[in-house]
Amino acid sequence: MKKTVLITGASSGIGEITAILLAEMGYKVYGAARSIDKMKPLESKGVSIVYLDLTNEESIVSCVETIISKEGRIDILINNAGYGSYGAIEDVPIEEARRQFEVNLFGLARLTQLVLPNMRQHKSGRIINVSTIGGKVYSPFGGWYHASKHALEGLSDCLRVETKPFGIDVVIIEPGGIKTPWGTIAAENLKKTSGNGAYANFVNRVYNFMIKSYAEGKTLTEPKVIAELIVKAATTAKPKTRYVAGYMAKLALFMRKWLSDKMFDKIITSMYKE
To answer: Catalytic site residue 247?
Structure first.
């Protein structure tokens, strides 16, 4: 029997590639995102598409009900959707901070709540939460983004322990620097939010660094590497609790673990010198 997969953020990048890879392996894959038009090409790859807005309760409920009514089950949930809201913590409107958490945490959590009863019923399932090394490390002006990913790490750890007795695995993916539009979008958001205020000098240095890193992307990791890692986490018999890959990922986590806070602060700050 084909296993059914639901993957969010399937309209581009890592999510799109993951959906295609799993469909090629014979899984029944549902790609979900707000942009149905962008997902249309997935249909020719054997991926079914479904509308999903993680900030809207009705949309989340409808997405799950649609899939379960057609397939009877959701075996693998890949929570991949997310974005980075950058700007000085002082400058970012609280409404935007809430939206960051709605997409990166609360929408994800609500979707997970709705899928879990079906997984428990079948006494099996796998939930893969795509976090980032930014869930353990930090960078200037990414406060709300990092906060949402730190929260996702904690939520995932608790969920893993709670659901294990029901035969459900919870896996966290922690990418480093990946060659996707994420970085340039976050940088432009940073410039718009804090490029002219009290933090402007530091903001513009960070902006220039991000634009150069993501626009050139010479050292960044291709999104297919992370997609293949997600596929491994989704299909292996006994998955690890965490998978780490991508540019600077393992080094950054190593430094954060063993260096003092102040030493790590200095290293992070030194990256953005003029």
So the answer is: no
Structural domains in the chain, CATH included, are: 4-270 (3.40.50.720)
Tell me phi and psi for residue 168, to 5 degrees.
Answer: -105, 125
| DSSP string computed for the chain | -PPEEEEESTTSHHHHHHHHHHHHTT-EEEEEES-HHHHHHHHTTT-EEEE--TT-HHHHHHHHHHHHHHHS---EEEE-------S-TTTS-HHHHHHHHIIIIIHHHHHHHHHHHHHHHTT-EEEEEE--GGGTS--TT-HHHHHHHHHHHHHHHHHHHHHGGGTEEEEEEEE-BBSSTHHHHHHHHHHHHHSSSTTHHHHHHHHHHHHHHHHH-SSSBPHHHHHHHHHHHHHSSS--SEEEESBTHHHHHHHHHHS-HHHHHHHHHHTT--
> What gap in Å lies between CA 175 and CA 223, rounded to an integer?
9
**Confidence at residue 206, expressed as pLDDT on a 0 to 100 scale:** 93
pLDDT per residue over 106-132, tens digit each? Answer: 999 999 999 999 999 999 999 999 999
Q: Answer with the residue of higher pLDDT: 60 or 212.
A: 60
**How would residue 220 be classed by pLDDT, with cut points 50, 70 and 90?**
confident
pTM: 0.95
Q: In this structure, are residues 228 and 21 in contact, taking their beta carbons and an 8 Å threshold?
A: yes
Active-site position among 27, 30, 86, 145: 145
Contact 156, 131 (CB under 8 A): yes
Mean predicted confidence (pLDDT) in 144-151: 98
pLDDT digits (tens, 9 = 90+) for 186-219: 899 999 999 999 999 999 999 998 888 887 766 7
